[in-house]
Design goal:
This protein is mostly helical and 158 residues long. It has helices spanning 3-31, 48-73, 77-86, 97-102, 105-127, 131-151, and strands at residues 34-36, 42-46, 152-156. Strands 1-2-3 form a three-stranded mixed sheet. The mean pLDDT is 94. The structure holds heme C. Heme C binds next to helix 2, helix 5, helix 6 and strand 3.
């Protein structure tokens, strides 16, 4: 094989590897692991354990929102802040990278912004102590719960 043919072969291999890396990155960062569900939503396909983990996080949202509304009704803004903080970004730090790679970009963006908003609710409850502000913020964040549930479902991989 001539030097020129060798370097052409090398170049072809490099291009091929780059394409494989790009496809992997696209799948991991943007597309995730999804298929069309019967009800028109997108089903995110997860291992059974991953689905259980993320559904547990979802139930934590409802439980946290229950605590926030209970504290609001008693004008206990410290209680509001404590309950909201538990749903903040800190709550998402234990999600395994493999699971995050299966979530489509839009899903991840929505999910992370929900955690961020709960931190904001906690910050403002500590600083401004205005129940009405918290209520408005809760309505905003619930809008995102609604938006995501109308677009996605989870499916356990067989
Ligand atoms: C980024 C997307 C997303 C966001 C944001 C989101 N959810 Fe979910 N949630 C899901 C998906 C997907 C399911 C599974 C639905 C299905 O399979 O039909 C789910 C399921 C649930 C469940 C059912 C849990 C179970 O054990 O079956 C509850 C409760 C829930 N979500 C509450 C919430 C609340 C409250 C919020 C907002 C604070 C929220 N979710 C925000 C995607 C999301």
């Amino acid at each position: 094989m001539s030097e020129a043919t060798k370097s052409k072969a090398c170049l072809a291999i490099i291009v091929l590897l780059l394409a494989v890396i790009a496809a992997g990155a696209y799948k991991f960062i943007i597309a995730g692991s999804v298929e069309k569900a019967e009800d028109g939503r997108l089903a995110v396909v997860l291992a059974p354990g991953e689905r259980a983990l993320i559904l547990k996080e979802m139930r934590g949202f409802v439980s946290g929102i229950q605590q926030i509304t209970d504290a609001l009704a008693r004008d206990d803004m410290k209680g509001v802040a404590a309950a909201a903080r538990q749903l903040g970004r800190g709550a998402a730090k234990d999600v395994p990278a493999a699971l995050i790679g299966k979530l489509p970009l839009e899903f991840k963006t929505l999910g992370f912004s929900v955690h961020g908003q709960f931190d904001q609710i906690a910050d403002d409850a500590e600083k401004t102590r205005m129940a009405r502000v918290t209520l408005g913020q809760l309505a905003d964040v619930l809008q995102k719960c609604v938006a995501c549930h109308s677009a996605y479902q989870f499916r356990a991989a067989p």
